[in-house]
Amino acid sequence: MKHVFVVNPAAGNGAALREILPAIHKALTGFEDDYEIHRTLSEQETILYCRQKCSFEGDVRFYACGGDGTVNNVLSGIAGFPNAQLAVVPCGTGNDFVRNYTNKENFLNIEKQIRGSVMPIDVLKWQGGYALNMFNIGVDCDVVAEAAAMKSDHLKGTAAYLAAAFKVLRRGKTYRMAYTIEDGEEQEAELMLAAIANGHFCGGGFQSCPSAKLDDGFMDVCVVRPVRGLKLPILLAKYRAGSHLRDKDADKYIEYIHCRKFRLRTLEPVRISVDGEVLDFADTEFEILPGALQLVVPEGSTPI
Prior knowledge:
By secondary structure, the chain is α+β, with helices and mostly antiparallel strands. About 30% of the residues lie in helices and about 35% in strands. It has helices at about 15-25, 45-55, 70-80, 110-115, 140-150, 155-170, 230-240, 250-255, and strands spanning about 1-5, 35-40, 60-65, 85-90, 115-125, 130, 135-140, 175-180, 185-190, 195, 220-225, 255-260, 260-275, 275-295.
């Protein structure tokens, strides 16, 4: 087994280089021929590098050392290769994917990652590639973009996302969209957001899709219609805690869908957050690929 550490040098303001590299060298002392470290240069370079390693090596375990975007790039590079495994070493801002597991600090422990167990999990697919955790469209995506802009204001992690959420929600923006569940009829609606999920969390800890499971062969979709007045902060707090589906007015504002395919068409300009990376978006079909990824779960952690 070859151990390949794909390190984003910009992640966490350089934390990946300062903290992870010494831990890698220490954990693999005496096994220098069994591992290598690759510093990423760009999204496309990372994807190409991972594809080449999968094509010319035997069994390879990739350690994505960075934020959710780095994880997505490595995923895009190894998708379709049965000889590849993915270990997530969270060094970014949100690090939402590892929140799906207990003792998430174990994901930063290189020795526990090396001793980890391998579990098949599902992968989300869309026309732009793949996602491991979640797609966010509408206000959710606006919050991700605003939080990224706030990094220069010395806000980090959950604090940045909360500040961004309050700022974005004050605008009262909604989006006209049309969506289709499986092979049903298309529905048009004014929406605040749509979250298409494999995991529970987005935005630094918002539990958008609390019923999602990474290995059940389904995606969870949370569609939220416009919320006004005093109900907005109440529902926002519940959306963060993952209790929004139990709100007494949930049926009025929320549609929660368990499906294998979901098509979304936007009727005005809108962006999409793909595992935390913001892109332009117009019209696509999302589908779930059951058991498509061999994920390394570090020693001492289990799915929540």
